[in-house]
Amino acid sequence: MQDLLFIDQPGLLAKSDRDSAPRERRYYVWTVGCQMNVSDSERLEAALQGVGYSPAQRPDDASFIVLNSCSVRASAEERILGKLGELVRVKREQPDTRVVLWGCMVGPNHRSIFERQLPMVDHFVSPSAVDEVVALAPNPIYTLDEPALPVANWTHPPVSVHVPIQYGCNMSCSYCVIPLRRGRERSRPLEELVEECSRIVARGAREITLLGQIVDSWGHDLPGRPQLADLLEAVHTVPGLQRLRFLTSHPAWMTERLITTVAKLPRCMPDINLPVQAGSDALLKLMRRGYTAQRYRALVERMRATIPNVSLTTDIIVGHPGEREEDFAQTMALCEEIRFDKVHIAAFSARPGTLAAEQEQDLALAVPEAEKEARRRALERLQEQIATELNQRFLGQTVEVLVEGESKGRWRGRSPNNKLVFFAHPDDLTGQTVSVEIKQTGPWALQGSLVSTGASLA
Ligand code: SF4
Known about the structure:
By secondary structure, this protein is an alpha/beta fold. 31% of the residues lie in helices and 22% in strands. It is globular, with a radius of gyration of 22 Å. 48% of the residues are buried. Residues 14-18 and 146-151 have low confidence and may be disordered. The structure holds iron/sulfur cluster (SF4).
């Protein structure tokens, strides 16, 4: 899972052509957490617009407020609790406002440990239950002509859409709260997913990212045990689809067939997120990750040998209980050796109910906060230097960019390797694949100038 990516934003689909809607038909959705939450919120917003709502930019301007929450780190819960604190005033001034707390803080059982402590919340809803949230909207003017899940309901979807293909996780990584909050793995059937992707692309999306906590394990619980490679092959045939990606892989589940399938499908992008979490076998065992650093290295070697120009991103936790200096040194060494395009780095944060939270009670195992922070900064500095060097290879090259939208007066898009690219142009090129010559590179993004529109696809 991409459990270390944090997105903290209101109004994912904040542009609407119904800007004159009154407050009673405006929603405010605020999202914290991983791509799965972002995908759930996108679906919720699409469904709310389908029943007649428009987005509001501030909670005060909405009658229906949904906070999509995350429990992966204590800081994520603190942000949600802070936001709920702000809503006390909104509810006092406008008592008809309806507030829903949604997502991982609520968990799978529709009951929340916070229920009695959060009087400003009217309803608690489990992760991914989009239909349940939509049914709570107080003033719909339409009913949905199709369920919000599993079929996405956008009239005008974004250029790039995340499609959940599986929910939950059967692993038991020491530090992770996801299996407790999202339950056992449930894969969605292949036909349903192909139909949904076809619908989204027919309505204007150009890129699909298939999402799962362990996306490579998709299908093992379905009749006939199809594999992610089968799903990629099927979705790849969707007419109009330009780019296909998937998130998040797991080293214990990634197969040779998956690697060769990515290599052979031209619209499947050379971009793999494979969380390693640590470079030391002793720590990987404590984390219960189910692979060794050597297995990880072998996978990277296979991917680099098989998928031309593949970019690799990873997730790493520093300061997990039991991480000795020599374990951290091995993580640094692994990063220097592999040279990832991007690393999502997090200092360990104990989550109640997990094995690692118990381990942290043992003073012999716990890593002091100052040391966690020092390790996080050291790894960040190393990665910034590596990413700076890696991105320099694009200088002077022309890359194909799928334009996602505008950002501070420039167009913003992604290269096949998922590099963020900015360029200036007078026309709106959103949704087009264009050729951009890279003039400037940095660790996090590339800047360039347009060479031509209508680039031939990779
Ligand atoms: S338990 Fe492990 S594999 Fe499953 S979601 Fe958490 S970190 Fe990912």
